[in-house]
Design a protein that fits this description.
With about 180 residues, the protein is an alpha/beta fold. The chain is about 10% helix and about 20% strand. The chain has 3 helices and 9 strands; from the N terminus they run βααβββαβββββ. The protein is globular.
Length: about 180
Amino acid sequence: MRDKNYSLNTDAGPQLIGADNVWLGNAPASGMALGEGMVIATIDTGTNFDHPSFADVGDDGYDHVNPLGSGNYLGVCDATNTDQYIADYTCNDKLIGGYDFIHDLVPDDGSFDIPGPEDESGHGSHTASTSGGNKVTGDFVGITGIQMSGVAPHATNIIFDVCFNSVQPGGCAGA
């Protein structure tokens, strides 16, 4: 079967995926209110590791617990992983790991992608924060005190950069 490239698209939020109960904190029987105890893997263009949506403590005061144990991280944040570790990436109890499957952590020439799972287009950050971004309060588009969050703001995140930006608008290989 031939491989296919998929376009980067966004869509409706919690209602589309039936996540209203998680959003409202009325968790299913598993007890995962607001995503607490869940790990979300986002397969997209990477993410911006320094964004408030991925801070250890959200604006609601929730302090995330790393399910791998404090100080244990994956991919570019795991200093023992000599194949992927990049000291510039800082993980925390909210964002517990990141992987780059586009460049194998070696920059290519002429591309918009950089080594590591940093998001150059914003699409992956949007997707990851929509599913599992912290509760954040800030000033947006000239309006003070706007509150926003992902569907499961108390979940932890692992980021996978599998989409490229070298050909606009970018895409994700099916393989």
